[in-house]
Design a protein that fits this description.
Blueprint: E1 4-10, E2 13-18, H1 19-45, H2 52-65, E3 72-74, H3 76-86, E4 89-92, E5 95-100, E6 103-109, H4 114-118, E7 125-129, E8 132-133, H5 139-146, E9 153-159, E10 167-172, E11 174-177, E12 181-186, E13 190-195, H6 202-213, E14 222-226, H7 235-243, E15 250-255, E16 263-266, E17 280-284, H8 291-301, E18 306-309, E19 317-323, E20 329-338, E21 354-355, H9 383-396, H10 400-425, H11 429-436, H12 438-460
Length: about 450
């Protein structure tokens, strides 16, 4: 039986309030009174005059950032910049960041931006911006200090796990124009798709770029979907990219505090990028976050792709941007997302099916000096060597004029060899990058091996 202990007389009516509800409401009012008292004391007694708007905005931001690293307040200027960023163009250094242990932590540098070109890495901590300590700043304040006029310089002091001393970098700010999708053919059999972030144009770009390079792939054996250092972006784009590789089934679900507000996002038949029998490898690392984890988790759970690389960042929460009329917006964490099998990757990340650490391939010293059958004295000649010796003996008996003609042919052969060498030297940066990328090479090897296995299995039937 409910007990009502507080009575209020309104006109001729007696209203009863539950004791607990009243107590909670009373506590909240007392706390708001406390806020008002502190606010008034700062306005009247602080050593310098402070704008009321600055105090209120700082209080709101403090309230939000105390919840988790991804909630916060954006003033009107920051809100407009965020809207531009999701459209794929904004100003700054090109770093996706979060706040951790009082410092700015780099989630991922964005490809082809000042940060990526300067060598900023996922996991780096920014401790100073233009020689001003980051400790004590909010994430919004730190981001604001890294932004500025195009071509202006900003100095970052970076702490890196494997470096004993801080690293100092001076970067020139630029207008960051993100082409969120890049694709090319690896040989004539593998399609390479690189997604750097999930913006409004990502899925459309992926389809159009793939259509363009498909003519260079007469014998498509597989697809590499590279999500390394992809900090995430728009949820609906993560769903539509996943949908491009799935015919049906759940892609992701989001669950709010109210269990009745669970949302499920499903794949649809008819918009697949490639057929089901084309194998897919997804490359991820600790710079792959949020929307990247939605895609890799969905394809992993549906057994549609092999996930390769290192464990992902582990951001399994959904932020809703709520505009405040005339006062910017708040970014509030409103839900957790779950993969189709019901996994939450919050603070856990997606664990790859095959762990492949980044590595540099170098030939072993002396490996080219190992002896083989060809080095043994008095070994049997190969058939090709026998024919070459016989041909040489025959040509030795030819007149000098014929020998001169043969020498001319030999020179032409040398010229052809030179042409081949020059072509090798003129390899594109893209080709060189692919050759030096150990994780990508492992993915290509795996796709080609799967293709050979599938072909043999089909032939045996």
């Amino acid at each position: 039986m409910r007990r009502y202990l507080k009575l209020a007389l309104v006109g001729s009516c007696i209203l009863a309030f539950p004791l607990v509800a009243y107590a909670e409401k009373n506590d909240t009012l007392q706390l708001l009174d406390l806020f008002g008292e502190v606010f008034d004391r700062i306005r009247s007694d602080y050593v310098e005059e402070v704008k009321d708007s600055d105090l209120v905005e700082a209080a709101i931001n403090g309230m939000l950032t105390s919840l988790d690293p991804h909630s916060g307040y954006m003033n009107e200027k920051a809100f407009k910049e965020m809207q531009v960023q999701t459209k794929g163009e904004f100003g700054g250094l090109g770093i996706e960041v979060t706040m951790e242990n009082g410092l700015v932590r780099v989630v991922s540098p964005i490809d082809d931006t000042p940060a990526a070109k300067a060598g900023v890495r996922p996991g780096d901590y920014i401790s100073y911006i233009n020689d001003e300590a980051v400790m004590g700043l909010t994430l919004s304040d730190a981001v604001e200090k890294m932004r500025g006029p195009v071509d202006s310089k900003v100095k970052l002091t970076i702490l890196r796990e494997d470096e004993k001393e801080p690293i100092e970098m001076t970067l020139a700010r630029a207008v960051i124009k993100i082409k969120s999708v890049r694709e090319h053919a690896e040989g004539d059999d593998i399609a390479y798709i690189r997604i750097t972030s999930f913006t409004e144009q990502t899925t459309e770009l992926m389809h159009s770029e793939f259509t363009r390079i498909k003519k260079d792939l007469p014998n498509l054996r597989g697809v590499v979907l590279d999500l390394r250092n992809n900090p995430g972006g728009l949820l609906e784009q993560a769903v539509s990219v996943s949908d491009a590789f799935l015919k049906q089934g759940e892609v992701v679900s989001t669950r709010e505090r109210d269990p009745n507000k669970t949302k499920r996002y499903n794949a649809h038949t008819g918009d697949e990028l490639v057929d089901d029998d084309v194998p897919v490898v997804v490359l991820v690392n600790n710079g792959s976050a949020s929307a990247s984890e939605i895609v890799s988790g969905a394809l992993q759970d549906h057994k549609r792709a092999i996930i390769m690389g290192t464990k992902t960042f582990g951001k399994g929460s959904v932020q809703t941007v709520i505009p405040l009329e005339g006062h910017g917006a708040i970014r509030l964490t409103t839900a957790r997302y779950y993969t189709p099998s019901g996994r939450s990757i919050q603070a856990k990340g997606i664990v790859p099916d095959i762990i492949v650490q980044p590595a540099k391939i170098e030939p072993l010293k002396g490996a080219d000096k190992m002896r083989s059958e060809a080095d043994l004295r008095k070994r049997l000649d190969t058939l090709e060597e026998k024919k070459a010796k016989e041909k040489k003996a025959t040509e030795a008996d030819k007149p000098e004029a014929d020998n001169a003609a043969d020498e001319g042919k030999a020179d032409k052969g040398k010229d052809k060899d030179k042409d081949k060498d020059s072509k090798k030297k003129s390899m594109s940066n893209e080709d060189i990058a692919s050759a030096e990328d150990f994780q990508l090479q492992r993915a290509l090897d795996l796709l080609r091996a799967v293709s050979v296995y599938n072909t043999q299995a089909t032939t045996d039937k």
